[in-house]
Amino acid sequence: MRSGNNAAMKKVAVLHPSRPNYLAKMKGKGRSPLKVNIKDAMTGLIGGFITILVLAVLTKITPATWLMAPFGASCVLAFGVWDAPLSQPRNIIGGHFISSLVGLMVYHFLGNEPWTIALGVGLAIAFMMMTKTTHPPAGADPIVVILGSYKWSYLIIPVLIGSIVIVLLAVLINNLRENREYPTFWI
Hints:
By secondary structure, this protein is mainly alpha-helical. The protein has one domain. 65% of the residues lie in helices and 0% in strands. Helix 3 runs antiparallel to helix 8, helix 5 packs antiparallel against helix 6 and helix 6 packs antiparallel against helix 7. It is flat and about 65 Å long.
């Protein structure tokens, strides 16, 4: 009977962590693993500059909007941490597409309210995780879509075409570096 009690107590301890253990987990350990590398910084500068310039020029010379704020953050991943799983084409394109689709659905069916914006972000995170397309910048897409009251066409331009442009330029620019091979996976 006693061993059953211990198992029950352990289960309760997992569900309700003691305050000292919970707070101790917030201290962090060690130092940042990030390294300073001038060549990587220059690749990020050039890649981000060219990509956003292309999208901004397309916005200026055509009637469509090709640029949205989360694309700047996508450039950080595509050129700064190009080999990370969340920086790969599947994640950039799929993450933006799924998150924006979620945002559009929430907006068109539930409206623009504080709770719908929050729901849009939460659903986008869940759907990206379930489809293996997690891309942190795309988590902002429902906010952009709902606050902007965008039409369904926003899903194609800028979201889909813009994220494809980011990936194409990331492939071209990252692979100019001898020590880089981008992408590390497509699917």
